[in-house]
Structures are given as structure tokens and as C-alpha cells.
Write a structure and sequence with these properties.
The complex is a heterodimer of chains A (262) and B (858). With 262 residues, chain A is of the alpha/beta class. Chain A has 8 helices and 10 strands. Among the domains of chain B are: 63-241, no CATH class; 459-533 and 712-858, no CATH class; 544-707, no CATH class. In chain B, the strands form 4 sheets. In chain B, strands 15, 16, 17, 18, 19, 20, 21, 22, 23 and 24 form a 10-stranded mixed beta sheet that branches. In chain B, strands 4, 5, 6, 7, 8, 9, 10 and 11 form an 8-stranded mixed beta sheet that branches. Chain B has a 4-stranded antiparallel beta sheet with strand order 3-13-1-14. Classes of the chains: A alpha/beta (262), B alpha+beta (858). Chain A binds chain B through residues 68, 73-74, 93-94, 97-98, 100-102, 104-106, 108, 110-117, 121, 125-126, 128-131, 171, and chain B through 401-402, 405, 478-480, 482-483, 486-487, 489-490, 760-761, 764-772, 774, 851-852, 855.
């Protein structure tokens, strides 16, 4: 069963349309014949602008693959993906790179920063690469929001894990991308540091109107989102608005139980 | 056993990363074995040639020396033909053949082109006799009969497109004559490249030697059962010790010594360059193993945690090195044989035929190759192996995403600076030295110390120089340039070692180019200052200036005067201090005082050409307590003894003909019989005022018939010196290219391994929007910066060495320092290009990396 989760194409905050990214009938398969493995099975999904969306699911459910495809890091086998009105499926590497550079922000689970650059240089790197001047006022605001003002000259190895992830958040925010994709951004952090980072992500949605998509398997992290999408066996099987950690955990347990029965 | 298994697995798992190190070992070993195989084969070829051309016992004139000697002086030592009967009567002699063989002859075709080899091999004119069958067959035509017939070796005929019926002109010392080719000979063994012309015996005696009834040697064949040594003894007993009697073995040995000393120089020079390449290769291997160990830190920590001893960890790395050494050396030995064959083919094109049929691989050759390859690899891997052993078990637990950046230590800085300072002091001492021997010791010491010092502080210099280079060059490339700079700086030890490898080769290039160019500049200056002659006539191939050539020169129009210059060899000079010195004298005409204005410290140079007068150089006079007005006793070789008056003391402050002892040719002729006075070594001529052009044209026209001698005016002579030094430098650069290639492989190696090491960073940068092109540019810039770092250090160091060497050689007349900026700048720019080329493959690989895989890499 494929659940189409669509949102009306109007309204929302500060964008061209209410939908920041769309996936239409997206299939991602590896191998062929007997060994063919389907990671994404005709997925349709709309990512609402100005919202914090979490993607959850058990290991191997295709949640990371979905995020990679939406972000233009991975190619799809069939189907279409749009960032705003731009179809990114079928774009050449050069265009895709430009798209990632100018319109998308990333936060990975670990190893987000270049060890040779200091915190500030890491934050402005995407703009430097593009040859754009960072917007000073915006940069200051972002840096202040993530609480890094005193540490901008530090190299990554002089920062704690939490601080490093906050630099990564600041980098993602600084270039004002249309969407930020996070791949378990708090997966390597203890709960306090994780809460800090998630708090900043939440605030950037509330205060800066940022669109964020985050893959996680942590119900507590998912609870920071406006909406949670559940993936299983490459399909979107459920969704939840205004989640809490308890509700998410319960829903997960029920999937788990169902998974075990079938 | 398990240690060995681990090493094997690691070795094969990382064979890609080992590839360049293996190539470095391969190249060095190939160069060493190639040199050995080539020289051994060449030696074998000459051995066979000498063995096949030498009779059982030969009898020559007592004074017969090396062939080079008579070729230049034009005076051929002979044995009288009437002794043949005596020799025939000696017990045990089967036959005696009178042989005539000389290298004083020049053979030209109808276009006046020398048909002799251009490779430096001789042109030999010989009489056709029974002994020739030992080495050649008549392959077409017939043997020469009468003064107008000659035979020629088929190789030369083929190379110079000559055939039976063509006319040749033979320019011999007694005079020239024409003869038709009537037959061709083919060698039974490999002829390495000599041109051989055969006449009949009578023609050889009359036209080549100018004396009927004499030979240059007797070739004796022993009766069966009589040993060569026995025969020699009997011959000496029969004819007395007034002759040089040699067995086949002795003749072969003598010939081998002649050619062998040349081959030895070549062999040791090539081995020296191979040694430099080996040294450079060490840096590459050290870097490879350092990086492998760094990447494997966690794995090694785990091995330590579960109970491996330091020694075992150490050993795993060394066994990997051993495998690398064995693989590299074995391939290198095979490559070396290939290289030797290639070298023979190349030499074949240049006229030196070495047959590959006789390819000689002595048992020692592969052993030497294997030992060099393995020992060098093990030494190189030792420091990284020790570092691996020191990794704590805690490393397994630490999250080492990337290996920690190596910090250049303080001890290193102190040691490096001390070495460099000591080296600089030695260089300064060398520059200020007033004794050549002492100075060259300081120079050697200074070169080694500054080189080692620079290698030690390389990592520190890397930080400094890369920053400066980045500020100048990388700035224009914006953030990509900045990241390239940071990457080059992140492991100064690695960058330092990579740059140092390049530094070594380029330092030698810079040093030699400075010395070479100073040599040309100094000689040109000296030529301007002290040579008054307008024209210099000499043979480039060591052929005598015959009397016909002298006449041709004298017949040129517009000449004011001509000075003959003779080299009087091996005169015994007894000085007032009672000591006797054997030295060569410079005999000439009084006009030479104008042509070659050697400054005099006491007296006037012209006085040296007075009757029974001689000049002595300052240093010699001082050493032997001789002063102006003293008498020295001179015993001329082949002549009488004379008492000569020291008429002038010349200055040693000259580089042209420094230390020459001048006297008049007429003085020599008074004590030496006419047939023992050597031919001119050189002739100097001055034009009448305003007729330089006409005189030069006239001289050229007069000498057109004699291709073995060349006339040059000062401009052309300077050009000749420049060309000769240029050729020598090019040869050396060519040999240094090996070391530079290995260093460039080192740059490729460092970048390739860095790209592997930075896979995740590359993925991250690509994810956040660095384009492929920017990625490739970043790696190229890093490579360029490393290459330029090496170039800057090398060129700086080399110019320092070169300038010091020039200051030292100023004692020997190298007075002008000339820095060849075009060469230096070309090398610098070339290094940037080399950096770009070195980055091609690593940049391509980095650009092609799949973003997702790169991010996922642990």
C-alpha cells in the first residue's frame, strides 16, 4: 500500500510555494534480477515549506536513501524529484552540485567539518565556494543563534562534538538554503548536546522560517518536528503531526510488532 | 607465521598504494643493473675484439705507447723490417707477419667528408696481411694490390653509402694519396664502431709511414704446444730488450685498460646518478609507509590491545617493506636488462655497435640489484615501522577520523638549523679557501651538511615557504586556493619529505648550471683578455696537423702571422733544487707571445722564445726554487738533453694554458731529431688589420679539404666552448632526470595517498557544493605548491653550492660568476608544470569519487 501524502500548493511561510520539495513515484533499486533490492518503492511525498519534517523508520527502511535522493546526493531509478519547481532528477553532476551549493544545506551525523578550516571558515565555506559574499547581518544572527560567537577562530579538533554539530548547523543556515537536510544530526551526541542542537534547528524553523528535513531513529529527536513520516520497506506507511516522544515511540512499537508478526 | 600472514594480506590489500613505491624501487634498481649489464656487455665485446685481433705474441717499438698519443703527434713508432728474419729463427715460432696499423690517417670521400666514425671510435689504416683473417673475412671484391687500391670494412661502407669502385682520399702524415675501394671486409666478431681501411704492405710502409721497410709491429704465431709466455721469453732472449714484447693476454689487457678506464668512468658516473635516484626514492617510500601506518592507527591499536607486542607490530610493517623491496627489485632487474638493451640500441644509432647477442649478465648483477632494492626499502620503512610499534592500545578506542596532524618537533628544528649553519660555515670557508684541496673538502662538507640540514628542517621550511607561495600564487584562486594551502600545510613532515625529494635533483641541476655557465663566461672573458690571435686551427678528433695542413694554413690570404703550437710530451726537467719532474712543454713560435698573452711576473714573455730559453710558471718556479736567470736541465723524450735558461716567470693567474712551460720550436728542434718532433697540436693565426673577414673565409676555403681540422675565429670558438659545456650539462641533466622522475612520482604518491586519506572530506565538500572542477583544481594547486616548494629550496640551495664552487674554482681560473637565470626560471616554471602533471591522476580520482560512498567511508 502506498500512502500519498500531499499538501495543498499554496500558503506557508516565505517561499514561492507551500511545497519546498516533492517526490513523485520515486523508485530506487539496487542490482537486477534475483538480487534486485528495492530501497524506495514508488514513494510520493511533499515537504512543506517552513516546517520541520522528520523521517523515521527501522534500519533498511529506506529513510536515508529517501533523504539522499531528495537532496540530490543520490540518483533515482525512476520517478521525479523537485526542489521547489526545479526537477532535479536527470540533472547533470554540474547542475546538481550547483543546486546543492546554492539551495540546499547539509548536516551529517559526523565528520561535518573540514579539519583544516576554523569554525567561521567552515560556516562560510559553501558561499566561499560559490564566490558569494556572506550577508554579514544574517551571519552574525546565525552565529549568535547557535551560540558560537566566542569560538569562531577555533579549529574543529578544538571543539566538542556538540559544538562541532552546532557549527555544522550554522553552516547549513548561513547560506539561507531553501531546505536543510539532516542525516541523524544528533546521532553521535549525548542527550544534552543533542537537545541543544535540536533546539537550534527548531528555533531556526520558528524564528528564521527555515525548512528542515531530518532523518532520525530517535523518538525524542523526532518530537522536535512538526510532522513525522514513517518509512518501512521503502514505502511511506504513516505520518504524524505535532508529535511527542511518547506518541512516536508508541507508533514505532506498533510497527515493530506488526513487522514481527508478518 | 601469523605476523607474516598479516603482512601479506596488508601488502596485497594495499597494492595500489604500494605501486608508486614499487616503481621507485624498480627504477633505481633498473638503473643500477642496467648500467652493470651495459658495461659488462661492452667490456665483453671489446675483450672478444682484442682477443680476436691480437697475435700470440707481438713485438713493437720500445716507445710505442697508447694509440691516442701517436694519432695526435703524428709520430709513429716503428720496428725495422730486417728483424723479421731474426724472429723467424726463434724456437717455437710458427710464423711472423709484419703489421702496420695507425690511427694517424684521415680518410675522406669525394665530397671531402670524413668517413671516420663520429662516435669517438678511431679510423684505423692497416696493411692487408695474413693476421687480418683472424678477425675479418673479405665479403666482396678482392684484397688491395698496389698504391691505388684499398679495402674498407663493410659497416662503414654501409653507413657512409660507399661501394666498390668509389674513390677515397687518405690523408696520412707523410702526405695524402687517392685510392679506389676494391673490396669490403666483414667482421667475425662485433666491431664496436671503428672505421678500417686496408692497403697492401708496400703502400702502407711508403704512404702511411713514409718509410719503406718498417712495420709498427710483428705478429708472431706460436707452434702448437708452445705457450705464449714461453714464446715471449724466447723472443726477448733472441732480440734483446730493446723492444716491447707482449703476449696475447698482455695486449688484450692493455687494450682493455684503455677502453676500460673510459667505461669505468661512465659506469661510476651512471651508478652515482642511480645512487641519487635511490636517495630520492627513500623519501617516497618513507612517505608511503608513514601514511599506511597513520591510516592503520586504529587497526594497529586493536592488535596491540588484543596482545600483539611492539616487536610484532614493528615486524608486520617491515615484512611488508621486504615484500615491496623484493617485488620492486625483481622487476627492476628485468627492467635493467631491458634498459641495457635499449642503451645498446641507442649507442648503435650513435655509431657504437654493441651486439645484444653477447648480453652479459654476471651473477653478481642481480644480487647487487636485489640487495640495493631490499636494503633501501627496509631502511626507508624502519622509521614508520618504529612509529607503528609505538602506537598505544588506546588508539583502538579513540575515534581517529583522520590521522592526527604531525607536528614538526623542536629537536628537529634545532638539529636542522645546526646542520645548516655548520654547512653554511663550511661553504663560506670553501669560498674563502686559497688552497684547492682544502677548499674542495670544505665544499663537499658544506654541500652534504646543508643538504642534510635542509632535509631535516624541510617540514619547518614547508610551513614557511608554502605560506609565502600561497600568499603570492594561491591568493588569486580564492577559497579553493586557500584549502589547497591548508592541505599542503596540514602535514608538514609529509610535504617536507615530498618537496625535499624534488629538492635534491633540482639543487644539483642548479649547481651544475651555475658552474657550467660560469665556466663559459670565465673562459670567454679570459679569451677576450689574453688571446690576441684571431683564428685557432685544431683537430676536434685528435688527428695530427700534417705538414700539408700547415702549408694550407700558411697559404691563406690576409694573414699577418701563423704560430705553430706543439705539445712536447714527457720531458724530464731537472730544476736547481735537484729534483726532476716529468712534464709536457709548450713549444711555439715567438709570435705566440702576441697570440696568447700570458702575463709575466718576472721578465718579458717574448724572451721565452730566445735561443735555449724557457719560461716557467710562477707556482712551479716557487715549488722548485727556480728564478729568472737560473738554468734547468731538460731531457727530451727521444732526443738529447739540453741546458735551458729560465728567461721569464709567467703568472698562474690565468685559465688558458695555466702552468705551461713555453719555449721556441727551434730550441726543441736543436735537441730532438726531426722525425721525433711532434706535429702541431694547434695553430694560431692573426689577420692583417682590417682583413679579418677575408682571412677567415680564405682559411676556411684552404682547410675545406681537411675535414679533420677546424678553423675558428674567437666568436666561433666561444660558441664551441658554450656548446661543449652545454652538451655535457644536457647529458648530466638527462641522467639527473631519473632522480627527478622518482621525485615527481613521490609527489603523485603523496597526493594519491592524501586523496585516499581524505575521502570523507572530499565527500563532504562535494555534498555541500564543491564542483568537480573546483575539487580537481584544489588538488592541482596543492601539488603545484609542493612542487614549487621543492623547486625553491633546490634552486636556492643549488645556486648557493654553485656560487661557492665558482669562488673556489676562481683559484683555477673560474673567475666570473654567471647565474644562468633563463635556466633557473625555466626550471622553476617547469616545476609548476610538473606539479600540474603529477596531480592529474589523483585529481581525476578525487573528482570521480562518489559523494555518498565518500561520506559513508569510515
Amino acid at each position: 500500500m502506498t500512502t500519498a501524502v500531499s499538501i495543498p500548493k499554496t500558503g506557508g511561510s516565505g517561499g514561492h510555494t507551500a511545497v519546498a520539495a516533492r517526490a513523485r513515484q520515486v523508485v530506487k533499486a539496487y542490482g537486477s534480477g534475483e538480487t534486485r533490492v528495492v530501497a524506495l518503492d514508488h514513494v510520493d511525498v511533499d515537504i512543506a515549506r517552513g516546517q520541520f519534517t522528520a523521517i523515521m523508520g527501522p534500519s533498511g527502511s529506506g529513510k536515508s536513501t529517501l533523504m539522499h535522493c531528495l537532496a540530490g546526493l543520490d540518483t533515482v531509478t525512476s520517478g521525479q524529484i523537485f526542489i521547489d519547481e526545479t526537477e532535479i532528477t536527470g540533472l547533470k553532476d554540474k547542475k546538481l552540485t550547483q543546486l546543492r551549493r546554492d539551495r540546499i544545506g547539509f548536516i551529517f551525523q559526523a565528520f561535518n567539518l573540514l579539519p583544516t578550516l576554523n569554525a567561521l571558515e567552515n560556516i562560510t565555506l559553501p558561499m566561499d565556494i560559490a564566490g558569494r559574499k556572506p550577508d554579514r547581518g544574517w551571519l552574525d544572527r546565525v552565529v549568535e543563534t547557535v551560540g558560537l560567537s566566542g569560538r569562531l577562530k577555533h579549529r574543529p579538533n578544538q571543539l566538542s562534538g556538540g559544538q562541532q554539530q552546532r557549527v555544522a548547523v550554522a553552516r547549513a543556515l548561513a547560506a539561507r538554503p531553501e531546505i536543510i537536510f539532516g542525516d541523524e544530526p544528533t546521532g553521535n551526541l549525548d542527550s544534552r548536546a543533542g537537545a541543544e542542537v535540536l533546539g537550534f534547528l527548531r528555533r531556526s524553523v520558528d524564528e528564521l522560517g527555515q525548512t528542515i528535513v531530518m532523518v532520525t531513529h530517535d523518538p525524542v529527536a523526532a518530537a522536535y518536528a512538526n510532522r513525522v513520516l514513517y518509512l518501512a520497506d521503502g514505502r511511506i506507511v504513516d505520518e504524524m503531526y505535532n508529535p511527542t516522544a511518547e506518541l512516536v515511540l508508541e507508533r514505532m512499537k506498533s510497527f515493530d510488532a506488526r513487522g514481527r508478526v508478518s | 607465521m601469523t605476523v607474516f600472514k598479516t603482512s601479506m594480506r596488508n601488502f596485497f590489500a594495499h597494492k595500489g598504494r604500494m605501486a608508486l613505491s614499487a616503481i621507485a624501487v624498480l627504477l633505481s634498481v633498473a638503473f643500477v643493473t642496467g648500467t652493470l649489464v651495459f658495461t659488462d656487455t661492452t667490456n665483453a665485446t671489446f675483450d672478444q675484439l682484442f682477443a680476436s685481433t691480437s697475435p700470440d705474441v707481438s713485438v713493437k717499438s720500445k716507445n710505442a705507447g697508447g694509440s691516442q698519443n701517436s694519432a695526435q703527434t703524428g709520430r709513429i713508432e716503428t720496428v725495422p723490417g730486417d728483424r723479421m728474419a731474426d724472429l723467424k729463427r726463434v724456437k717455437g715460432v710458427k710464423s711472423v707477419v709484419g703489421d702496420i696499423s695507425t690511427e694517424t690517417v684521415t680518410v675522406v670521400d669525394r665530397n671531402n667528408d670524413d668517413i671516420g666514425p663520429s662516435s669517438g671510435a678511431p679510423t684505423v689504416a692497416t696493411n692487408w696481411d695474413a693476421t687480418e683473417f683472424l678477425s675479418v673475412d673479405v665479403s666482396s671484391g678482392h684484397q688491395p694490390r698496389g698504391p691505388t687500391e684499398v679495402m674498407l670494412d663493410a659497416d662503414t661502407a654501409k653507413n657512409k653509402k660507399l661501394k666498390i669502385g668509389d674513390e677515397l682520399r687518405l690523408i696520412a702524415v707523410p702526405g695524402e694519396f687517392r685510392a679506389k675501394i676494391v673490396g669490403l671486409t666483414t667482421f667475425k666478431v662485433t666491431n664496436p664502431g671503428a672505421t678500417i681501411v686496408y692497403t697492401d704492405t708496400d703502400t702502407a710502409q711508403r704512404k702511411l709511414l713514409g718509410r719503406p721497410g718498417v712495420y709498427t709491429s710483428f705478429a708472431l704465431t706460436a707452434q702448437p704446444g708452445v705457450s705464449n709466455d714461453q714464446l715471449k721469453k724466447d723472443v726477448v732472449a733472441a732480440i734483446g730488450d730493446g723492444f716491447k714484447v707482449q703476449t696475447k693476454a698482455e695486449v688484450t689487457e692493455e687494450g682493455k685498460d684503455d677502453i676500460g678506464s673510459f667505461l669505468d668512468i661512465m659506469k661510476y658516473a651512471m651508478l652515482g646518478f642511480a645512487g641519487i635516484a635511490v636517495l630520492v626514492g627513500i623519501f617516497l617510500i618513507v612517505n608511503t609507509f608513514s601514511m599506511l601506518v597513520a591510516q592503520r592507527t586504529r587497526e594497529i591499536g586493536l592488535m596491540r590491545a588484543i596482545g600483539s607486542s611492539r616487536k610484532q607490530v614493528n615486524r608486520t610493517v617491515l615484512i611488508e617493506a621486504l615484500l615491496l623491496g623484493v617485488v620492486g627489485s625483481v622487476l627492476g632487474i628485468l627492467g635493467g636488462v631491458g634498459l641495457a638493451v635499449g642503451l645498446m640500441k641507442l649507442m648503435g644509432n650513435m655509431g657504437l655497435n654493441i651486439s645484444t647477442d653477447q648480453l652479459t649478465v654476471k651473477p653478481a648483477t642481480p644480487i647487487i640489484g636485489l640487495v640495493i632494492g631490499i636494503v633501501v626499502t627496509l631502511i626507508s620503512a624502519y622509521i614508520p615501522a618504529r612509529r607503528a610499534g609505538k602506537i598505544s592500545p588506546m588508539a583502538a578506542l579513540r575515534d581517529a577520523g583522520t590521522p592526527a596532524d604531525a607536528k614538526a618537533g623542536r629537536i628537529r628544528a634545532v638539529v636542522g638549523l645546526l646542520l645548516t649553519a655548520a654547512g653554511t660555515v663550511a661553504l663560506v670557508a670553501a669560498a674563502k679557501a686559497d688552497k684547492a684541496a682544502e677548499g674542495s673538502m670544505f665544499l663537499g662538507l658544506g654541500v652534504v651538511l646543508t643538504l642534510v640540514g635542509f632535509i631535516v628542517i624541510g617540514p619547518l621550511l614547508a610551513g614557511l615557504v608554502v605560506r609565502v607561495l600561497a600568499a603570492v600564487i594561491l591568493r588569486i584562486f580564492g577559497p579553493v586556493g586557500r584549502m589547497a594551502e591548508r592541505n599542503a600545510l596540514r602535514n608538514p613532515r609529509r610535504t617536507g619529505a615530498t618537496g625535499a625529494a624534488l629538492m635534491i635533483g633540482l639543487a644539483l641541476v642548479a649547481c651544475l648550471s651555475v658552474v657550467g655557465s660560469s665556466m663559459v663566461a670565465s673562459a670567454s672573458e679570459e679569451l677576450d683578455k689574453s688571446v690576441g690571435a684571431d683564428f685557432i686551427v685544431q683537430s676536434d678528433g685528435g688527428k695530427p696537423i700534417t705538414s700539408e695542413i700547415e702549408k694550407a694554413v700558411a697559404g691563406a690570404k690576409g694573414l699577418d702571422h701563423v704560430s705553430h703550437f706543439k705539445d712536447i710530451r714527457d720531458a724530464k726537467i731537472t730544476t736547481p733544487d735537484g729534483k726532476t719532474t716529468t712534464d709536457n712543454l709548450a713549444a711555439s713560435d715567438p709570435t705566440l707571445a702576441d697570440d696568447l698573452r700570458t702575463p709575466a711576473v718576472d721578465g718579458s714573455l717574448a724572451d721565452a722564445y730566445g735561443k735555449d730559453a724557457i719560461s716557467l710558471p710562477e707556482g712551479f718556479a716557487k715549488d722548485h726554487k727556480a728564478k729568472k736567470g737560473d738554468t734547468v736541465t731538460v731531457a727530451f723524450k727521444g732526443g738529447r738533453t739540453a741546458k735551458l735558461k729560465v728567461a721569464v716567470i709567467t703568472s698562474d693567474d690565468t685559465s688558458l694554458n695555466k702552468g705551461a712551460k713555453y719555449l721556441n720550436i727551434t730550441t726543441v728542434e736543436r735537441y730532438v731529431p726531426a722525425d721525433k718532433v711532434p706535429a702541431d697540436l694547434m695553430m694560431l693565426a692573426a689577420a692583417k688589420d682590417g682583413q679579418e673577414k677575408e682571412a677567415y673565409a680564405s682559411l676556411k676555403a684552404q682547410l675545406d679539404r681537411y675535414p679533420q681540422v677546424k678553423v675558428r675565429d674567437q666568436t666561433d670558438y666561444k660558441k664551441l666552448m658554450k656548446d661543449q659545456i652545454g652538451q655535457l650539462l644536457n647529458l648530466v641533466y638527462g641522467l639527473l632526470a631519473l632522480a627527478i622522475i622518482v621525485a615527481v612520482l613521490g609527489v603523485v604518491n603523496t597526493l594519491a595517498l592524501s586523496v585516499v586519506e581524505r575521502t570523507r572530506e572530499i565527500g563532504l565538500m562535494r555534498a555541500i557544493g564543491l564542483s568537480r572542477r573546483q575539487m580537481r583544481r584544489m588538488i592541482r594547486l596543492e601539488s603545484v605548491v609542493i612542487a614549487l616548494f621543492g623547486a625553491l629550496l633546490g634552486l636556492g640551495l643549488g645556486m648557493g653550492w654553485g656560487a661557492t664552487a665558482q669562488k673556489l674554482l676562481a683559484l683555477e681560473g673560474l673567475k666570473t660568476l654567471d647565474i644562468p637565470w633563463p635556466t633557473i626560471i625555466t626550471v622553476f616554471i617547469g616545476s609548476a608544470v610538473v606539479g600540474l602533471v603529477a596531480a592529474l591522476l589523483p585529481a581525476f580520482r578525487a573528482g570521480r569519487m562518489n559523494v555518498l560512498n565518500a561520506i559513508a567511508t569510515e
